[in-house]
Structures are given as C-alpha cells and as structure tokens.
C-alpha cells in the first residue's frame, strides 16, 4: 500500500467522503420533501376580486 501523501487519499477516506456526500444528498431531498409538504398545507392567498376601498 502506498502511504498517504497530500495528493493521495486512502480508500477508507474516499469511502467516508462518499458516505458523507450520500447523507448530505438524502438530507437535502428530505428537506425538499418537507418543504413541499408544508407548501401543500398552506392555502395560497390569491384573491381574484379587487380589494374593496375603505370608506
């Protein structure tokens, strides 16, 4: 095995970095799903009639 140098990353480290990246991607997906679910719970505040002027 070649000793670790600044330009060489061990297979173990590569595996750890890959796992961290996968966990980050899963967390991002979960946040998007949660955001989408919350967005569906909140009704849009869109009015199709003009507001009445205050007398």
Describe the structure.
This protein is an all-alpha fold and 55 residues long. It has a domain at 10-41. The chain contains 1 helix and no strands. The chain has one helix at 11-41. The relative contact order is 0.07.
Entry summary:
The protein has one helix at residues 11-41.
List keywords for this structure.
55 residues; mainly alpha; rod-shaped
Distance between the termini: 85 Å
Mean pLDDT over all positions: 80
Q: How many β-strand stretches?
A: 0
Structural class of the secondary elements?
mainly alpha
**Biggest sheet details:** none
What is the H/E string? H
Query: Which stretches are low in confidence, meaning pLDDT under 50 for 5 or more residues running?
Result: none
Radius of gyration: 25 Å
Give the overall form: rod-shaped
- What is the number of helices? 1
Taken as a percent bin, the fraction of beta residues is under 5%
- Relative helix content: 55-70%
